[in-house]
Structures are given as C-alpha cells and as structure tokens.
Write the structure tokens for this entry.
Amino acid sequence: MRNSRALAETDTQRLEAFSDGIFAIAITLLILEIKVPQVNPSEGTTSLASGLFALWPSYFAYIFSFIMIGVFWANHHYVFNLYERSNRIFKLINLFFLMFISFLPFPTAVLARYITDTQQRQTAIILYALTLFVTVLMWLFMWLYASHNHQLLNKNLDDQFIAHLTRQYTGTSVLYFLALVLSLWNSIAGLTLCVGLTLLYLLPQKKPVYRGNRI
C-alpha cells in the first residue's frame, strides 16, 4: 500500500495528462478572439470579403500563437519521456509554466488588436515577447531542476545528451530575452525574431542518447 502510494506521488503520467489538458484549452481559446465581421454600409463596410481581409492581424496572431503552443506541447511530450519521476517542487514549476501557457491567449488578443496601431504596437509586442520569454524561462527552470544530478531523469541518459539539451534550452531563453530587448528598441524586429525562433523549433528534436548506446 505504501509502495503504491509512493509510486503515485512520483509518477509523471498524471502530470503530463493534466498538462495536455491545459495545452488543449489554451490552444482552443485562441480562435475565440477572431470575431465574425459585420457588414454595415452605414459604417463604410459594404463587403464581407473586405471585412474578412481586414481581420488579417487576428489571423496572424492566431496562427503564430497556435504554432507556438503546439511547439511547446510537442517539446513537453518529448522531454517528459526523459523524466522517470516527479516531486512537489517539479510539479509546482510545471504548474507555473502552464500558467503562462494558459495566459498566452491574452497577449495574442492584444497583439491582434494593436499590431496595426503605430502608437500602441510596441506595447503589444513587448507584452507578447515578455510572455514568451517568461514561459521559456520556466521551461528552462523545470529542466535544470529535473536534470540536476539526474534526480528526476532516466538514470541511463547519456551525460553529453543532457548537456546538449541544457545548452539548447539555455540558448533558447537567451534568444527570447534578446527578442524582448530588441522589441524595446524596434518592435517589428523583436516580433520577427520571435517568429523566426518559433519556426526554428519546428525542426525535429535530437533523438535521446543512452549510456552504452551513443551514436
């Protein structure tokens, strides 16, 4: 009885299932920000086609954030295959990571609303870049905690492979921080870097390497 309770407390399957639910909700909420345009001749809107075209900022923000959350979900599934156990601190870090994932639809809506407003665009992009940076930072914290002394990882994982992921996740955090700093100076350049990083991480992850099976 005690062993089964201890196993339940360290099992990562429930944690991953809960995380999948948060990802699913966050990615679904994005579409709610795209509103059906109203055709109103008295207000100068005489064509549904032009009304739909005018929603391009919402389409852009939706697609970008959909891909972003999708990349986080895919990488979350990938890295959880490397974890063998969890503990309270790890669960809390993962929870804070998910908090920013679920928050992402809000800066997405702000970005869609103000990306064409030359006076407010920079603030909207800074908010979006800040959200991405903090989300990536929480991801890094989760990995560093889990990989410290192999405490939550598969014990057979190769040290060089672990070091590779540590460098990758640290580098990602630095690049998103640079995107945030860049957006303070040039908002479009900062957003472009965010988009580029997102597309970059669509590439397949490196296959896990285990001791005695290095390739």
Summary: DSSP finds nine helices and no strands in the chain. Residues 1-9 have pLDDT under 50 and may be disordered. The chain has one domain: 2-200. The two ends are 42 Å apart (CA to CA).
